[in-house]
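Recall the central idea of this unit: under ordinary conditions, the amino acid sequence of a chain determines the structure it adopts. In this exercise we apply that idea directly, starting from the sequence alone.
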Amino acid sequence: MIVIYAIIVVTVFVSAYAFQNQEFLSNSVFSPYRVKNFKENQRIISHMFIHVDWAHLAFNMFSLFFLGQILFVSLYNQFGNVSAMIHFALLYILGGVFASLILFVRNHENAHYNSLGASGAVSAIVFAAILCNPTMKLALLFIPIPIPAYIFGPLYLAFEYFALRRGQGNIAHDAHLGGAIFGILYILFLDPQKGDDFIQLIFN
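Accordingly, the structure predicted from this sequence is:
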């Protein structure tokens, strides 16, 4: 599972550096306005490796560590070690990019909008893990009691959707939704049967 550890180590190191260097932080956040008008496309990737504070960083990395291991085992059992590492890395990076594109579409005219953190990429991993392991038990934040992943996933998506509609707070709920959608689509592309299995669990 070296790919998981590598992502965590790099993210912790870069985030820790950004905490101490405001210029680096400012140049790394995702600014849809600057991407559009100044072609600072590196921000699409760089913001995934910086965070607001240690709590923000810890939450994302713990989620990545625990759910990432579960997903990696599923990918390993299906594709073998090397392919599992490639799929995991692609899912993480492309999930984060997809989430960023949604933020770009919604905020590219807003010069004051900035976003940072790995939440979109982590959300892709979390929902890929849910689709691969729908009967595992999960409990996060507003759902403190462990419940099956096939119930937790839809409830979490509904929470993010309504939080986005309310438009309150500084959390990028649209990035969470974008990452989740990408994670689901990626797994369905690899194995469409997992979608059928998931739906059967919900309606049975």
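The mean pLDDT is 93.
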